[in-house]
Please model this.
Amino acid sequence: MKQNIRNLSVFVCICTVITLLLAFTNSLTAPIIEQNQNAAANKALLEVMPEGQGFETVLLEEYTLPTTVSEVYRETSGLGYVVKLITSGYGTDMVIMCGVDTKGIVTGAVCLSSNETLAKEKTYGENFTDKDAAGVDAVDTIGGATKTTAAYKNAVKDALSTAIILGGGSVDIRTEEEILADNLAAALPAGEAKFEKLFRVELIENVDAIYAAENGAGYVFVIGETFVGVLADGTVVTEGIDNAEMITAAVTLIQSSTVEDIALSAYTDLTKTVVSAKKTATGNFIVETKGAGYGIKGGNEYHPASGEYIIVRVSMTPDYRIIDCLTVFEAETDGLGDACADESFYGQFVGKTEANYTEIDAISGATMTTDGYKQAIERAFAAVKILKGGE
Model:
């Protein structure tokens, strides 16, 4: 018994000594570790603001800033701010650090991390140095990575906006979605701020998009940067519109348009690649086609992981011009291939023909998905040809 007590006492003493040694060691190393961490953090900050003397954290809770802003540092000698932003192109979590001086000039920008395959990721930020807001807009995008580089540019502009706000100025920091919603509501107040984008099956020239009020009050036509409100009876309520008659006629066309199902059983060659087919009274076609996704390039096999295809809905004129395009289903990689469900991607096919439908920006890091989507579009053209021949 005494032996056990003696052993326990020795063990306690050893543990106490080790604890004291660890505490002493930590007291010596903690300041060094903190110093090294601060040096690493300052190195990233100095990369985009080389003349900075020191930096202090800004409390974001005190300001209303763009949603992309995750951290802000104020340069202690008054040079300006360094803003850390998290945005996304075709993927997610593209982290960008940007310095802005008190005159609203970018002192540097760098992409800290990204799952985008942006070819010039490490050097693209150099294009923004010494630029103001107008200069940032003028920076060239990178071919084949338009969405990614656009996201980069928008993040830099958010950093410029942040510097203005922290300096006591005022900036419109609404997201694109919020701006769209506000414009729709302003164009047609009777829509009660609830709209749904129409999938168009009739060709209406010079109109970029049409939104229908969910309560049936009418529509909003988007023509360039102009939002035109029109009631369900065709009355244009937005003032100063020169082409009001065209819009009224378009509403009549939309409301009178009818579609008829096409029985695919009569077209055995299409049943493997076409999900459904319809035809409007005006002679346009609406087809839903399958395309191979990630893991398959070509062929008719199912996706090995999800057991599914990419499914695309395409409306097309009899002379093979795409009226509208929509991703109905996809089972692609999160943060990469699933960008095929973003309108910024599938909207590129609107207005395309069989001669130029491949001339679109690929999804960065998702070549197989992009190719599979193009395959679905190719099959849509082929399907319409067969359906026309079967009339």
